[in-house]
Design goal:
About 15% of the residues are buried. The protein has a domain at about 30-80. It has about 90 residues and is mainly alpha-helical. About 50% of the residues lie in helices and about 0% in strands. Helix 1 packs across helix 2 and helix 1 (about 30-50) packs antiparallel against helix 3. It contains four helices and no strands.
Amino acid sequence: MQTTMERPPQATSEPPPTPARKAPTNVAGWDRALRILIGVVMLYLGWTGAVAGTWGAVFRYVGFVPLLTGLVAWCPLYRVLGVSTYRA
């Protein structure tokens, strides 16, 4: 009769998993939607040439700011000023 011997569990060098941290949020849902809309409109107006000259260049590049802050739900200026439209 053949018996099987179980191996003891081997120690791993991996650290235990850490709980996931939630990213900071200081922009509410309505604020996010408004920022995304404003960013898209600014980028559209700037890149299609609907607004030309200096204002067109401003729209082309500054339009990314509200778009990105709306997408990530975090505004660095709100953080500096201590403002938050988000209510947990």
